Amino acid sequence: MSKRLIPNIVTLANLFFGITSLWLTMESQYKEAAVAILFAMVLDGMDGRLARRLHVTSDFGKELDSLSDLVSFGVAPALLTYGSILNTIGYWGLLIAIIFALCGAIRLARFNVLNIKTHFVGVLITICGPLMAIFVLLSNRLPLEFYVIMSIVLSYLMVSNIKVPKY
Amino acid sequence: MSKRLIPNIVTLANLFFGITSLWLTMESQYKEAAVAILFAMVLDGMDGRLARRLHVTSDFGKELDSLSDLVSFGVAPALLTYGSILNTIGYWGLLIAIIFALCGAIRLARFNVLNIKTHFVGVLITICGPLMAIFVLLSNRLPLEFYVIMSIVLSYLMVSNIKVPKY
């Protein structure tokens, strides 16, 4: 197998877990859906590093990474949070969840275009999505209001102009 | 409102219908979920033309379009087909559905990188996704085997090297 393929397979595995999370949410298995997002997060932390270590970074890989991130850290956490918690406030809850995913998409599109080397503009979707998944895992300890506020705050932080240092 | 924003708002509306389709699939409202994908298709046909007509095409818009397309025409039709039909064959059905979405992601990433002006390489996800939605609308007239075969065939066509003329 060409070593060029390895990081892309890891990225596709990230997307695989994102879609699996959506399926688990459909099946009302919310804790498992949250864990799938955390698995996707681990894989997302690996693909870029692997590509750089193997000297096989590519534009194709970057595009695939972005696409996977929207599903695993935008759409999957949004529908998980709606399905498990925000649905108690009906359409308002759905709207808040969808806005989270839309802001994630704006964040990703902007990130690909800006291509600044020194820092990120706006908080990363790869931080906000897993955070929502962790909050869902703590759902018996946190009130509904927390989820409403956190969804809105994280949505805002993703599209804000806050500078986040690269590490 | 800046006219620069208009096409991007249409693209976000495409994504909005994609996520709405996933939510409707979660609620077992399969016909409505299929219609949501067709709404997304109509919007997807508008954003690029609108951007060109208003002379506001942008890299940001293209990235946002790709991201939205994966959700509306890759992930949403995949989970709709699984939820409404392919779940009768269990995990095999889920695997076939996920492969459809993964092939869609590969197609989109490749499309953005190749950037060929004269033709497309591989059948467009924006054709394959709505086709699956239409098949779901016809689900009382078509056998299970049809969905299994079509999912696999369309997955292959998206990642194939078939030349599709631009029109």
From TrEMBL, chains A, B:
UniProt keyword terms in alphabetical order: Lipid biosynthesis, Lipid metabolism, Membrane, Phospholipid biosynthesis, Phospholipid metabolism, Transferase, Transmembrane, Transmembrane helix
Residues passing through the membrane, by range: 5-24, 91-108, 120-138, 144-162
UniProt subcellular location: Endomembrane system
GO cellular component terms given for this protein: endomembrane system; membrane
PROSITE patterns membership: CDP_ALCOHOL_P_TRANSF
Record Pfam families: CDP-OH_P_transf
Main location per the UniProt record: membrane
BP GO annotations: phospholipid biosynthetic process
Signal peptide: none
Membrane topology: Multi-pass membrane protein
GO molecular-function term, one example from the UniProt record: CDP-diacylglycerol-serine O-phosphatidyltransferase activity
Cell wall biogenesis/degradation in keyword set: no
Superkingdom classification of source: Bacteria
Known EC number: 2.7.8.8
Reactions listed under catalytic activity: a CDP-1,2-diacyl-sn-glycerol + L-serine = a 1,2-diacyl-sn-glycero-3-phospho-L-serine + CMP + H(+)
The family this protein is said to belong to: Belongs to the CDP-alcohol phosphatidyltransferase class-I family.
The protein, known as: CDP-diacylglycerol--serine O-phosphatidyltransferase
Species of the source: Thermanaerosceptrum fracticalcis
